[in-house]
Amino acid sequence: MKKHIVVLTGAGMSAESGIKTFRDADGLWEGHDVMEVASPEGFAHNPELVLDFYNQRRRQLKDVKPNQAHNDLAQLETNYKVNIITQNVDDLHERAGSTDVLHLHGELRKIRSTGDDNDIKVWTEDINLGDTCKKGYQLRPHIVWFGEDVPMMDTAIKICYAADILVIIGTSMQVYPAASLINYIQPDTAIYYIDPKPAITNNGKVTVIKKSATEGMNALLTLLK
């Protein structure tokens, strides 16, 4: 029976593909206050700004591609059962070939109705003000904004509970509830943490690999042999 690896990925996973990390050191996201473009209040106040912000992010996906770390994770499926739980809203894991990816914070290439959270569709082009679902409600990005529930959290907890190995890549472990997933593994689960600026120190429980996602994955593959 294949060992079960659960991988938690954050912004650092996609940084080497050219996708900027969630927010810069000054707290701004692509020049915007995060709450302007990533909260229900921001959307209610200026829906055109929010739609344009995510339209730009969605367009960017057409110009980037998976990096070697994405590819290495996909290749792990040859010898392991692999679940990826990502905070990222891009589709680079899927494009690299990973077959079991859970997006905690939503997906750029999906939209949903503002009047029905379950009315979700694949969407690869711009969303404009006036684009509506069949019931007449404005469409919005399928993104979990600040102050909104994380609907896939319970599923993610169950996945972590079943892990033999937990790998954390490119996340500051500061965004909750995602950061709490490390608390839902079994006591004997091995933990590997890949990040150039790790938020967790190396100890008997966690093996820290102080490298970028691509270099760190290369090191991890050696450790797993």
Commentary on this structure:
The structure is a single chain. This protein has 225 residues and is an alpha/beta fold. The protein folds into two domains: 1-19 and 68-105 and 153-225, Rossmann fold (3-Layer(aba) Sandwich), CATH 3.40.50; 21-63 and 110-143, 2-Layer Sandwich (SIR2/SIRT2 'Small Domain'). Helices cover 28% and strands 24% of the residues. It is built from eight helices and eleven strands. The strands form three sheets. Strands 5-4-1-9-10-11 form a six-stranded parallel β-sheet, sandwiched between helices. Helix 6 links the parallel strand 4 and strand 5 (101-103). Helix 5 (68-75) runs parallel beside helix 8 (213-224). The longest helix is centred in the first third of the chain and has 14 residues, at 47-60. The radius of gyration is 18 Å and the shape is elongated.
How would the blueprint of this fold be written?
Layout: E1 4-9, H1 11-15, E2 28-29, E3 32-33, H2 34-37, H3 40-45, H4 47-60, H5 68-75, E4 81-86, H6 92-96, E5 101-103, E6 106-113, E7 116-122, E8 139-143, H7 153-161, E9 165-169, E10 190-194, E11 206-209, H8 213-224
Helix pairs in contact: 5-8
Based on the coordinates given, report the CATH architecture of the largest domain.
3-Layer(aba) Sandwich
Task: Tell me the domain tally.
Answer: 2
Strand content: 15-25%
Q: Write the CATH homologous superfamily of the largest domain.
A: TPP-binding domain
CATH top level assignment of the largest domain: Alpha Beta
User: How many helices does DSSP assign?
Assistant: 8
H-E order? EHEEHHHHEHEEEEHEEEH
Shape: elongated
Which secondary-structure class do the elements indicate? alpha/beta
Sequence stretches where pLDDT stays below 50 over 5 or more residues: none
User: What is the radius of gyration computed over CA atoms, rounded to a whole number of angstroms?
Assistant: 18 Å
**Cross-sheet strand order for the largest sheet:** 5-4-1-9-10-11
Main pleated-sheet profile? 6 strands, parallel
Question: What oligomeric state do the depicted chains represent?
Answer: single chain
What is the averaged pLDDT score? 92
Helix content: 25-40%
From the N-terminal CA to the C-terminal CA, the straight-line distance is 16 Å
Total beta-strand segments: 11
CATH fold group of the largest domain? Rossmann fold
